Amino acid sequence: MIGGLLSGVGKLLNAGAVCLQHVNFTQRALNCTPQELPGVLTSYARGLSDASFTGFKMTLAMMIAKEGDADRKAGLQQLMRLSDQARQGEVVVPQSQELPVSDAKDGAELRACLERNPVTLITLDLNLGKENGLDLARDIRKDRNIPIIMLTGKGDAIDRVVGLELGADDYLAKPFELRELVARVRAVLRRTAAAEPTPSSAQRYAFEGWTLDIGRRSLKRDSGEDQELTTGEFNLLEAFVKRPHRVLSRDEIMDLLKGHNWSPLDRSIDNLIARLRKKIEGDPEHPQLIKTVRGVGYTFAADAKRLT
């Protein structure tokens, strides 16, 4: 990608406008693969003093101004964009053809992005400064079913549980490697793609005033009103209606909901069930559809009739 990248840099060096250390690093960074770049850039940016980091940004700005090749200029601009994230210890996700990325630094930018472009998946950092990431997730879930992976630097499991209750499809605690984030993104996208309607999945089940359409991934009341479900909620309900009156342990439910990062030590399954009860039970405090079998697990107590 570099091949002749630093055209004009010699003149800048002679003028004393840039630091040779920054130029050499920039050349090395632009030769990195997308997988290598986050670690390399983060290590360099966080190892600089405030004054040196300012000099690094000035060097990038001058190189961008002097560069005439469009592709090389784009590479330098990407480094400029990612350097602040790396300096602050934020997640650095470079653009790639496989996983094109749109950045949003706050809720307003995210909402504008959602209105402007189709979004396949959202990675949402809970630490957004003035805005609460959990509140933003709640707003997104009101009218969109886009998969959400929550990123948090907090060690308390409460944040993860609340995030899953609000509809997050997965979570990842910082610090983490980019490879793990990409792997989780791919896993969620695979689950989403697998959930798309296909002829073999065109099944509908009726129970207690509800119709669950597996192919269309929809849940409707008999009155025709749609009930929005997250990916996890829908998969859980599907597992239950296909196994009515059968007691399922938490371990069995975890196995049925493959792809999620469940831990037998937390109560994520219990909270997911509680969230689903709020949406389908007439009285969630005294559930009649999803009943708890103490010491064992849960059972779907309604008769589920397959329609197609």
Question: How would you describe the overall organization of this protein?
Answer:
Helices cover 46% and strands 14% of the residues. It has 308 residues and is of the alpha+beta class. The protein has three domains: 9-87, no CATH class; 107-194, Rossmann fold (3-Layer(aba) Sandwich); 199-306, Arc Repressor Mutant, subunit A, CATH 1.10.10.10. A hairpin with a 4-residue loop joins strand 7 (210-213) and strand 8 (218-221). Helix 4 packs antiparallel against helix 5 (70-87), helix 8 (157-166) runs parallel beside helix 12 (268-280) and helix 10 packs across helix 12 (268-280).
- Percent of residues in helices: 40-55%
What's the order of the H and E elements? HHHHHHEEEHEHEHEEEHEHHEEE
Assign the CATH topology of the largest domain. Arc Repressor Mutant, subunit A
Question: What integer value in Å does the Rg equal?
Answer: 24 Å
For the record, what CATH class of the largest domain applies?
Mainly Alpha
* Global structural class: alpha+beta
Instruction: Name the CATH architecture of the largest domain.
Output: Orthogonal Bundle
First-to-last CA distance: 55 Å
Number of beta-strand segments? 12
By CATH, the superfamily of the largest domain comes out as: Winged helix-like DNA-binding domain superfamily/Winged helix DNA-binding domain
Report the biggest beta sheet as strand number plus sense, adding barrel if it closes: 4 strands, antiparallel
What are the segments in which pLDDT stays under 50 over at least 5 consecutive residues?
1-18, 197-201
Q: Strands across the major sheet, in which order?
A: 8-7-6-12
